Amino acid sequence: MNFHTRKWIKPEDLNPNGTLFGGSLLAWVDEAAAIYAIIQLENHRVVTKYISEINFMASARQGEIVELGMEPTHWGKTSLTLRCEVRNKLTRETIVKIDRIIFVSLDEHGQPAPHGKTRIEYVADRLGQPRAPHEQEPQA
Q1: Fold (topology level) of 2-122
Q2: With b meaning 16 or more CB within 10 Å and e meaning fewer, what string describes 60-87?
Q3: pTM of the predicted model, to two decimals?
Q4: Where would a tag sit more exposed on the chain, N or C end, judged by fewer CB atoms within 10 A?
């Protein structure tokens, strides 16, 4: 899983218990997942269709840094399904796991549109450049 997004927990992100407010965390997840889907599908018109059960496993406190990881698990005709994990950047403790977040690619009229994608693409692939070592496809 690739962890691209990091967030610093500030006072406005806390609940009355003094820990990370779940609503703030879920907003971060939805935004990071949408950005991932937009880049993969090469379409800025994507919408969140479904988010599966959310498993809160730990909490986080003010001043800590969390990182959000996304991994595609299924490519549909008009959709992309992602798996997400949020963890503490320094301790690597998992804070939340979400098994399925489904995004749908839309056309200019707001209707589902086929995206033609079947695998992860990196910017280097689109530009015909060699990939960085961390972007290499796993060897079978």
Answers
A1: Thiol Ester Dehydrase; Chain A (3.10.129)
A2: beeebebbbbbeeeebeebbbbbbbbbb
A3: 0.85
A4: C
- Tell me the pLDDT tens digit for each residue of 48-83: 999 999 999 999 999 999 999 999 999 999 999 999
- Please give the backbone phi and psi of residue 116, each rounded to the nearest 5 degrees, phi first: 75, 10
Q: What pLDDT, in 10s, does the model give residues 81-109? A: 999 999 999 999 999 999 999 999 999 99
Question: Does the pLDDT value for residue 4 go beyond 90?
Answer: no
Q: What are the domain boundaries of the chain?
A: 2-122
Chain centroid to CA 12:
22
DSSP 3-state assignment of 25?
A: helix
List C-alpha distances in Å: 62 to 84, 127, 137.
22, 40, 36
Q: Which residues pair with 74 in a beta bridge?
A: 81
Please, are residues 48 and 34 in contact by the beta-carbon 8 Å criterion?
yes
